[in-house]
Amino acid sequence: MLQMRDKKGYVRIAVAIFLLVFLLFPIYWMVHTSLMPTSAILSVEPKILLDPTLINFFSYVDVFIRKPIVQWFRNSLVVTIGSATVSVVVSLFAGYSLSRYSTFGQQLMGYILLLSRMLPGALLVIPLYIIFSRMGLINSLIALMAANVTAIIPFTTWMMKGFFDGIPTELEESGLIDGCSWFDSFYYIVLPLTVPGLAAVIIYSAILSWNEYLFARTLAYDPGAWIFTVGIASFVGEHSVSWSGLMAAGTIFIIPIIFLFFFLEPYLVRGLTAGAIKE
Questions:
Q1: Cβ partners under 8 Å of residue 97, min gap 6
Q2: Among 176, 196, 220, 211, residue whose Cα is nearest residue 276
Q3: Which of 18, 50, 110, 247 could form a disulfide with 33 if both were Cys (CB 3.0 to 4.6 A apart)?
Q4: What pLDDT, in 10s, does the model give residues 102-117?
Q5: What is the Cα–Cα distance from 150 to 83, expressed in whole angstroms?
Q6: CA-wise closest residue to 197 among 165, 172, 154, 174
Q7: Is 119 helix (H, G, I), strand (E, B) or coil?
């Protein structure tokens, strides 16, 4: 019996290592390609392991010289922060409303939000383009933030609803009995307990906004309003592809999200699983 358990343990470790290598290999290959010269990248038999004699950082210097990386980064940062902030605030109160009140209108609105999340982005981009065009918001970061919010809020609202469902209403009632107003009870009692859920919503909103391409490509075709995802696509030319520059820009692109994930990771799992178990 003990040998069987040991064998199962080894199998699990082997599967975990395989999955880890499988998932991290694209990131490794992106960094690998960004550090290699073009001749090594396009060779018939490219080396999987890094060759220390060929490593150079010319691609990173070149992308900052040839491309407005800083402007793309700034635009992406503004759009991500704006989209995440609006999404968190709206989904916080919308999720609380769906959790604490069960009127027909609110439940109907909740299902409409869920249904809207099922619509593909390609179906929404044309109506959004027409609306923003009439409002004069094409080629503006506000249009990108508004478009991202329409795609983020339906899911984050239901995420926050599941989390509020796991917070007993007796906590709020005890605060009201002690003389707190509704807002005080929400702010001082409920809100501190929602930190894991808020962290999960922030990470989801930030990743979705940071990686968004369809809306950004359609609603902001002026190079001055490009975000990082659209700018990276410019490395793919009509007759050639700057692979080392493309991979260098991609490596720079993922760094902020990695830092955000590690900063909020302690709260992420708790936030995503909140409301999954009912007592």
A1: 106
A2: 196
A3: 247
A4: 777 777 777 787 777 7
A5: 9
A6: 165
A7: coil
E strands, 125-237, are none
In the predicted structure, residue 81 carries a pLDDT above the cut 90: yes
Positive or negative, the CA dihedral 132, 135, 141, 143 is negative
Please report, for residues 23, 114, 142, 170, the alpha-carbon distance to residue 167 in angstroms, rounded to integers and kept in the order given: 35, 22, 35, 9
The H or E element containing residue 57 is: none
Report the range out of 55-69, 90-104, 136-150, 153-167 with the highest average pLDDT: 136-150
Residues in Cβ contact with 202 at an 8 Å cutoff, skipping those fewer than 6 apart: 84, 88, 260, 264
Q: Pick from 203, 228, 212, 268: which is nearest to 77 by CA?
A: 228
> How confident is the model at residue 78, as a pLDDT?
94
3-class DSSP state for residue 250? helix
The residue with tokens 């550090």 is 35
**Percentage of residues in the chain having pLDDT higher than 90:** 15
